[in-house]
Amino acid sequence: MHIGPGFLSPAVWGSTAAVSGAALAASLAVANRRLDDRRVVLMGVMGAFVFAAQMINFPVLPGTSGHLGGGFLLGVLLGAPPAIVVMASILLVQALVFQDGGVEALGANVLVMGVIPALVGTAVRRLWRRRAGPLADVFTFLGGLVAVLLGATGVIVLLWLSAALPGSVSLWQAIGVMDLVHLVIGAAEGAASVAVVRFVLKTRPEAVFEGAGAPVEMAST
Amino acid sequence: MTRANRNTLLVGLAAAILVGGVISYFASAWPDGLEKTQADLGADSPRHGGVEAPPVAFHEYSLKWLGEGFWANAAAGVAGALLVLAILLGVGRLLRRRREAGGASPASQQVG
C-alpha cells in the first residue's frame, strides 16, 4: 500500500511528514522510558519479521494482490510508541533501498501504515493485557481489519487532497473501490495478527507485558 | 544478552529469513490493492514531482547483480530484514546510552 513517488502534492507530503516526524519523535521519547533488552530485541526481531512478511503478496481478487501492513500487529505486541519506531524503520529501508514508496511520500506512508494502525493496535493491546481468550482473538481480528481500512481510506484522502484523482471520480467512489479490495486484505491482516500475537505471547509473554510470567533467567543485572 | 533473548533473536530471524528469503519468491506478482485501485480509477500516472531512491544495490526486491530469479529475491529479503534489525538494535542501544548518560532512573534498566 506504499504511495509511490509523484502522487502527493508538496503541501500534502510536507504536512504528513511533519505529523509523522512529530509522532516519531514523541514515540522515541516515550519508548525510551521503558526500553529494556527484552523490549529492544522484540522490536528488532518483529521489525525484521514484518519487513519479510510485507514481501508476501497474496492474491485477493483476480488481478489484485495484497500484503500485510504489520503496524497493527506491532501496536498490539509493543504498544504504539515502539510500534511507530519499528514501522518508520521498515518504511525507511523500503523507500531508500528497495524503491518501495516515494522518498517524499515517506511521512505519508508512515502515517497510514505506521501511526494509524499502531494506535488501533494499542487499543486492542489492553484486552490481551487483561486476559488472552476468544474475546481478545475476535477484537484482534476486527482491529486488524479496521486498521487496514482506516489506512486505505487515509491513502485515498491524501491522493484526493493532492488532486491525484481524476475529476470524474468522486472521493467517495474512490474510497469505495479502495476499501472493497482492502476488506479482503484487512481480513488477512486480522487473521495473521491473531496467529502471531498468540504465538509471541505463548513464547515470550514477559517481553510483551512487564511482569507477565517472567522466566527466572530474565533477571540479570 | 540472556538466553531467552538470544533464542527470540534466533527464532525471529529464522522466521524472517524463511518468509522474506524463501517464501516471498512465490508471492503474487499482481499489482497490490493501492496500485490496482489507482489503475482502475485512472490515477496511476504521477502528477507531481516525486523522488524515487536510486537502485544502488537492489532493483526493487532483487539484488542487481543476480538478475531477477530466486537468489536475487532471497538476497533482498535477507538483507532488508537484517538492515531493519540492525537499525532497531542500534536505535535501542543509542537511546539507552543517552538515558544512562542523562542519569535517569536506573530502575527499569537491564543489562544482559
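qc> Chain A touches chain B through 88 residues (CB under 8 Å).
qc> done
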